[in-house]
């Protein structure tokens, strides 16, 4: 499955090596083909306007990959509303989303159930 990696570090002093190595190992063990890596450096996870995240989203809309792999939810988004809206868009695009450390895979039955529950809770809380 064609897969994109998304990585983010909060400061220029942090290295993405732990994330990158872990994501590459996971992809190899799961038989995922890495076709792109998107890294935002020194950008807050609360900002939706991160350059590499925007590039990743354009690539997703162009169907350049079928899966997005992240190390943890907080590396992808710090805002619940942003996370949910992005996951909803991925769902509509048919893009699988895997958070390795959080053990959530929207392509699995359990991951789909978790996504549905989180989405329903967010909707009831007006996120």
How much helicity do the residues have?
40-55%
Shape: globular
Unreliable residue stretches: none
CATH architecture: 3-Layer(aba) Sandwich
What distance separates the N and C termini? 32 Å
Outline the biggest β-sheet: 5 strands, mixed
What does this protein structure show overall?
There is one protein chain. With 127 residues, the chain is α/β, with parallel strands linked by helices. The protein has a single domain, classed as Rossmann fold (3-Layer(aba) Sandwich). Helix content is 46%, strand content 21%. The chain contains five helices and five strands. It has a five-stranded mixed sheet, sandwiched between helices. The longest helix has 16 residues, at 109-124. It is globular and about 40 Å long.
Q: Would you summarize the structure shown here?
A:
With 127 residues, the chain is of the alpha/beta class.
Keywords for this structure?
127 residues, alpha/beta, Rossmann fold, 5 helices
Write the layout of secondary structure elements.
Elements: E1 2-9, H1 17-30, E2 33-41, H2 51-61, E3 67-70, H3 73-76, H4 80-93, E4 96-99, E5 104-105, H5 109-124
Parallel strand pairs: 1-2, 1-3, 3-4
Antiparallel strand pairs: 4-5
Helix pairs in contact: 4-5
């Amino acid at each position: 499955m064609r897969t994109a990696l998304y990585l983010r570090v909060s400061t220029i002093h942090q290295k993405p090596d732990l994330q990158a190595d872990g994501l590459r190992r996971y992809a190899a063990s799961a038989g995922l083909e890495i076709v792109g890596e998107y890294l935002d450096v020194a950008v807050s996870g609360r900002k939706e306007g991160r350059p590499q995240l925007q590039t990743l989203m354009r690539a997703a809309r162009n169907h350049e990959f079928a899966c997005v792999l992240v190390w943890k939810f907080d590396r992808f988004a710090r805002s619940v509303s942003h996370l949910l809206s992005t996951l909803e868009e991925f769902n509509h695009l048919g893009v699988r989303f895997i958070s390795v450390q959080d053990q959530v895979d929207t392509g699995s039955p359990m991951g789909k159930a978790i996504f549905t529950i989180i989405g329903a809770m967010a909707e009831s809380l007006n996120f």
